């Protein structure tokens, strides 16, 4: 028998749930004093009680009977439009093993959790200590997601046209399509949230965020984002310092500037750095970006060891809900599940997705070319006629380009999602990575097309410098507004009555407040912002050395802004345990390599460097050849550096090897036959 | 009791070993009808019987007593200067587990061998079926190599100055230094050897060598070399075909040639391909080299699965004999062994080895520059004076350069070996890879410096073409002589009397014949020859399209030549089980990337391409920029292609994942405590 207590860390939500409402647990070890509400399933107001009862019975049924082996509670009453879901101990522990999470063993080391050996893990009796809130909620989500119809059946209370489940159909997806489930989201735990907030953004903990608490409350993806953000902010200190020194302390080669001014070539812009400053900045930037990424990899691997996510076994788990294929026995695990050949996916990625993405990138370039072409045309026309009409026409190319870009972007986003679905990835992480890569490429291209055009086609460095500075400062201001000022206003003025109301009505169902919040939009926008700014810094740093200073300022305001957003302005997101930043890390790494090329090119274009070379007796053609040589050598140096710095600290490597050694030993001491799928034994 | 039979596959060597001479086995399961002589330890003639007895007792002692748990036999008599060594079943099986070899399980799948579960593996009772000859011999070698003095002791019969073993000192290395062991080498099995020969080179099986038999008799490294050679030969067919077509069937742009001849620029060399031929050749060569390496990776992984070497556990085994460090508990395996921190090795590689190798490469360049400089000087002097003395002086630069190169090469080889030893690699494979990389870089540089000089500094394509053709054809002829004609003569004429003698004296100790053969020089020379020729093909292919045809011819003669050499002209080498070609594969891969750069450059230099561009209205500076762009795009395409083609076939991936899944399951079903080193349990 489970019952709801009204004390402890279980929050106000629980108070509205009358005692004994929770479904019963099936095994003795799962009986607990109090049940913690983890996830809320939002139904439409029109839902039939019979459908709701069916769904609750499905949630509580054991896995053997095709259920999710969770605990459900019908909210205020049988007719309400919510189901609150929790998970019993056994389900949580089994799912922990399936996920491959590492937990603290009794010798204080991290070990892959084993249900068989569960009693040797610390805190295994207190689920709220053993698993983090984010993990418990994620487990509920995957259990719900993995609900499958065991045979063809009807959904009670739903019209026949929508309500027929085929055998092995995913139930949650079907219910969402049929309109029975409006939403599934994890519930905030107000006390813990306040605790995290207090330690995090209220005290402006920018340089030392409570990462473990963030990981525990919001989960792996969010914690990795903030860890990276903090690491990045620290890493920006040296280039910012160098930028300040180069801009304000180094004389700036005034002699050269005057000389140029006399020649009448460059008088309009003489605040660029000197030749040696250029060189120092470019080489430093190259080294810095390599070290940054390599040390982040080390940091990332120790974080993932600390959070027990180094040995996730997603590829051995059940496929993600959207995965489809011919039903068959998985050759590795021997489970019955949809199968889809790897080579077919590779072909789809290579022969369809890749060219299509290329096509869209081409369309971006086409749009930009069209814009410049149109602008030149209109300007010529205006100069010729000078009428009011032609003056108005001047705005046309800009408007047309904006409309074109917006349409293109929306079409691309739809296409990217459809393509990724069609590629039919088995694992959620693989799906995410492919989707993010597609959107990322396009967004990045869209952001940088203008800058690249100025740098490499127009070859106009002063314009590039101005554009870069204005982008950075404008972006900074907009950012400040949207991420710091607006939330501050919302928090301190607009939401004040709401807050008061909350304090008054402790008894009222607070779930409503959470339901009214918009869903968390994901970290894509945050990451792409970081990446684009990292691009400004690494790709064009030798043009505008103050970039790093502006970025540092930006990050310092970004951290509390983002923290406030995720804590207060949105619903709590589901967050999978992850072992790294996934494709974002690769994106930063690739940018590091591209930056070598772009910096070499910018140096080559720099009039002062050209002058310097000409004085040294190197002809125009040979300068290019020298630049190519330097580029190749720098890339080689970068690769050697990356190879030299191990991607994980020694102590993490040793722990990993210990686990590998142990599993090898374990395999040897067992009768191998016991694991071989029966069908493959002759 | 073990005894020697005089029938079965055990060869003539056994006949000279009188019955009952073998040391006794300690456990019942190891008793066998006949003992197969595997390895011969050659002692000096002056060896004391007491030393020999001590060594034999050490070899036969159990591991618990600091022995090697092998079988030994004193040869003809107690005073003879050889010890013949074999291995009992238990030692072989335990070592198979330690190596991590996969063997056939009773369900016909390959599974990591487990001593605990040994009875479920097929052929486990017949060591000659279960393990290959090369594996048995390698196991004897590692057991001998791992002999360690358990306490400080004296070697009986050896003067005190040399004969004191420190505690934990490696015994074999000490005995070699003290002159007690002259040599250790594996014995040929004449019947099996004849069998392999018959199926291999006698029938000129160039296109389909008996790879399994080679792997079984000569071991992994040798088998991988020949597998690669065969794969490479097949892969050369398409480029050879294209080369023939481009050379003889495509008109060759005669109009352009004439035009150039009229201009008086290029009349001396008009047999180069046309612009489109150039382009086709360059792009084809780029694609081909990528596909070649990617498909070889797939082939390599399926071979290593077939040969059971996909899950070698070298890093968990004992360190290689030359490894030193402070004695301590290995944190992973919990064994007492020398420890040496990874970061220190990385530092040594990065801060000492890398700059030193760079220095030597610089010296090569310096030598070449000096040579060209000296030659110009001497030629000028000769033209001025025209005396006999100055005529003789003309040879001086050549001679000086040859002497310089030879000295440099010898110094470098010594330095490379010392550096690699000093880097103190724990695993033999890591030692080999680092050593090979060093020598490889130097040899490659030495071979290509002249060609690069001609291509990139002199920018003289006709000279490059001539040089390339002469190198290839000369090399071909020399190769034919040394690898086919000479062995043929040796085999059919010179060794005839020797053979006759062998046939007469079946009873005589045939070990002597094997002792008289020179030791196998290793595969370095063979691999580097392949690599250099692959370099000719991929780096400069667009200059001389017939390269592939010549290489194909070369390989067709190389295979039987190499096969003959290894079968007849040398002692049998020890050959470790390996899962791939190691660093050689990387070398071929890197060359593929370098080839993109060099081909782009060569196209850029090609006078016809330049003319073609000028006609198209592209200026000299822009041609270079286009070339850079093309280079970067081609490298991107190469990387995408390499990413798209999985490095292992689907079926191999599934098998690998099965094993990983099983070992994860095994670990979960065991009490983790049993594997945690006791010292780390609180």
UniProtKB/TrEMBL annotation, chains A, B:
TM helices/strands, residue ranges: 349-372, 392-415, 436-457, 534-557, 624-645
Keywords: Membrane, Transmembrane, Transmembrane helix
GO MF term set: chloride channel activity
Predominant location category: membrane
Domain Anoctamin transmembrane: 214-658
Annotated localization: Membrane
Membrane-related topology note: Multi-pass membrane protein
This protein's record includes keyword Transmembrane helix: yes
Domain of life where this protein originates: Eukaryota
GO cellular component: plasma membrane
Presence of keyword Transmembrane: yes
Family: Belongs to the anoctamin family.
The protein's name in its UniProt record: Anoctamin
Lineage: Eukaryota, Metazoa, Chordata, Craniata, Vertebrata
């Amino acid at each position: 028998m489970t019952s709801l207590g009204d004390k402890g860390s279980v929050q106000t939500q629980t108070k509205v749930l009358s005692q004994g409402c929770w479904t019963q647990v099936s095994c003795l070890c799962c009986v607990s004093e109090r049940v913690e509400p983890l996830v809320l399933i939002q139904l439409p107001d029109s839902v039939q009680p019979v459908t709701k009862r069916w769904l609750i019975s499905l949630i509580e049924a054991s896995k053997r009977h095709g259920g999710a082996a969770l605990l459900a509670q019908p909210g205020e009453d049988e007719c309400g439009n919510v189901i609150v879901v929790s998970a019993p101990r056994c389900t949580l522990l089994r799912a922990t093993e399936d996920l491959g999470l590492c937990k603290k063993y009794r010798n204080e080391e991290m070990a892959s959790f084993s249900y068989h050996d569960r009693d040797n893990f610390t805190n295994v009796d207190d689920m709220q200590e053993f698993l983090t809130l984010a993990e418990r909620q994620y487990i509920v989500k995957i259990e719900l997601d993995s609900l499958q119809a065991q045979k063809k059946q009807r959904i009670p209370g739903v019209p026949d046209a929508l309500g027929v489940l085929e055998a092995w159909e995913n139930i949650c997806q079907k219910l969402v399509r049929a309109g029975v489930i409006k939403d599934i989201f994890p519930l905030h735990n107000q006390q813990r949230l306040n605790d995290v907030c207090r330690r995090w953004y209220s005290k402006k903990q920018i340089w030392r965020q409570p990462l473990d608490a963030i990981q525990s409350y919001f989960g792996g993806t969010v914690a990795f984002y903030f860890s990276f953000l903090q690491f990045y902010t620290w890493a920006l200190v040296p280039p910012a310092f160098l930028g300040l020194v180069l801009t304000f302390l180094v004389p700036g080669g005034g002699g050269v500037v005057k000389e140029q001014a006399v020649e009448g070539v460059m008088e309009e812009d003489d605040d660029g750095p000197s030749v040696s400053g250029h060189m120092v900045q470019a080489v430093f930037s190259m080294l810095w970006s390599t070290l940054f990424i390599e040390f982040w990899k080390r940091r990332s691997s120790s974080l993932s060891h600390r959070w027990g996510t180094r040995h996730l076994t997603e590829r051995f788990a059940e496929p993600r809900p959207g995965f489809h294929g011919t039903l068959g026995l998985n050759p590795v695990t021997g489970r019955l599940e949809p199968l889809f050949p790897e080579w077919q996916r590779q072909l789809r990625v290579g022969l369809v997705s890749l060219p299509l993405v290329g096509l869209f990138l081409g369309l971006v370039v086409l749009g930009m070319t069209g814009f410049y072409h149109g602008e030149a045309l209109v300007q010529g026309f205006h100069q010729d006629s000078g009428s009011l009409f032609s003056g108005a026409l001047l705005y046309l190319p800009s408007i047309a380009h904006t409309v074109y870009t917006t349409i293109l972007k929306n079409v691309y986003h739809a296409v990217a999602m459809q393509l990724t679905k069609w590629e039919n990835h088995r694992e959620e992480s693989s799906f995410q990575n492919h989707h993010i890569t597609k959107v990322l490429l396009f967004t990045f291209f869209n952001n940088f097309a203008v800058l690249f055009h100025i740098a490499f086609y127009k070859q106009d460095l002063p314009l590039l410098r101005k554009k870069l500075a204005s982008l950075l400062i404008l972006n900074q201001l907009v950012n400040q507004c949207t991420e710091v000022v607006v939330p501050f206003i919302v928090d301190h003025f607009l939401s004040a009555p709401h807050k008061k109301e909350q304090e008054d009505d402790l008894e009222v169902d607070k779930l409503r407040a959470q339901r009214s919040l918009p869903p968390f939009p994901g970290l894509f926008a945050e990451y792409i912002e970081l990446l684009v700014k990292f691009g400004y810094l690494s790709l064009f740093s030798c043009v505008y050395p103050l970039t790093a200073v502006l970025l540092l300022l930006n990050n310092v305001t970004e951290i509390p802004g983002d923290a406030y957003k995720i804590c207060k302005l949105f619903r709590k997101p589901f967050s999978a345990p992850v072992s790294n930043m996934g494709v974002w890390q690769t994106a930063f790494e690739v940018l590091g390599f591209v930056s070598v090329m772009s910096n070499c090119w910018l140096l080559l274009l720099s009039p002062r460097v050209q002058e310097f070379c000409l004085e040294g007796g190197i002809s125009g053609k040979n300068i290019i050849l020298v630049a190519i040589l330097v580029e190749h050598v720098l890339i080689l140096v970068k690769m050697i550096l990356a190879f030299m710095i191990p991607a994980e600290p020694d102590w993490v490597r040793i722990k990993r090897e210990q686990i590998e050694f142990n599993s090898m030993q374990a395999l040897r001491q067992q009768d191998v036959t016991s694991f071989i799928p029966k069908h493959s034994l002759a």
